[in-house]
Amino acid sequence: MQYIGSIDQGTTSTRFIIFDKQGNMISVGQKEHTQIYPQAGWVEHDPDEIWQNTQEVIGLALGKANLSALDLAAVGITNQRETTVVWNKTTGKPYYNAIVWQDTRVGNIVAELAKEGGSDRFRKETGLPLATYFSGLKLQWLLHNVEGLRNDAEKGEAIFGNMDTFIIWHLTGGTEGGIHITDVTNASRTQLMNLQTLAWDETILATLNIPLAMLPAIRSSSEVYGEAKGILANVPVAGDLGDQQAALVGQTCFAAGEAKNTYGTGCFMLMNTGTTPMPSTYGLLTTVAYQFGQQPVHYALEGSVAITGALVQWLRDNLGMIEKSADIETLANSVEDNGGCYFVPAFSGLYAPYWKADARGVIVGLTRYINKAHIARAALEATAFQTLEVLEAMEKDASIKISSLRVDGGMVVNELLMQFQADMVDVPVVCPSMIETTALGAAYAAGLAVGYWQDFDDLKQNWGIAHTWQPDMPAEQRTKQYHFWKKAVQRSFDWDEA
Prior knowledge:
Radius of gyration: 22 Å
Number of helices: 16
Low-confidence stretches: none
Strand order of the largest sheet: 17-18-16-15-21-22-23
């Protein structure tokens, strides 16, 4: 019996998960990597550490299940999107640490570009507003600030990619013939790809002074790109999706109007809008959902929230308020409500629907009554409030009323959060049996490319419901809570004056 392997290269850890034909998890290996904070607002990862971890977790998962590469029909990759790395194709060495999607160092560049053409100057071509979030400006920063990089880039020696590109290049041989590619979903997160042509936009490249030679070839999300070398020798590398698009596929949201919300380091809601890109007028992103082989590209509307699960980590690591992330639910449950305390975690500015790079985190409504349990509860509630804001924007943009919300990601195990989420969105919140939908989506893309699964119907048969949370909050209470949340958000605006 053969299986499908999935590399899930995330913001805080890298995992290798092996799935069977029914979408069940057979084995998993996981390893965290170092979060590097050189100064306020800067977030980096060591790409070499991540590649080393990737090889280790592959070996770990195979060993646990007593399998070898021969037991895998294909491997797919999903990745933290927008995280930017540049390396030398002859030596394989990165020129600099990977600049993580949360990083805000290009805030000044965003402001300068917006002065000339407004914050939407690239939105028509890319579906994205000017923001610190996307890869293109991070790449421009590297070209300006790393000695010798521009010269090597002009010569075609220095090559760029999001983490999917870096992993695939190493996986397929690295300096010995590694394939330099990305897929349409990851390319759509660079702010350098034209959504209509699905090609790099040469006008934007010229504006940002980025050499075309350093960019990867853009391919579909599901096709055989090449064969792996090393630990996965001869296994077809056949799927590539940015993590949130992978979760959309893993949740089998293949019809226009179907949406999912992933609760991870950040929170990301995507709605499939079909084969036509839908411009947003309510602060959402227009992005590529997926493309399977030669089939038409599907697009999505996306609402991105920068800090959700990362806020729990912050309470754990920076404040020492809890010992492990799971402890937050017990602490928050020790009080009946937030005591009038609201926590807006604008650590990296605010993403959808505000797009305010100068916002910063605030805790408001503090009195002598407030204790750490109220703050823990307010931190969890912040995730639900931010999700509600995105959902409202999505319903307005798509003119579709969502009847239920499909959820996945690490935070769905938090009963308090999921119930509060249902209460705030006022529709049922539905969690599938397999919550590792990001890795599963990458596995589906790879499996479809090699015929392991035949079509979408095969994938839909694997989807089942594990739990549904029904809304159970009086409308008056919901309205009051949301009013104070909106008030708190206003307090976070215009803080950073750099």
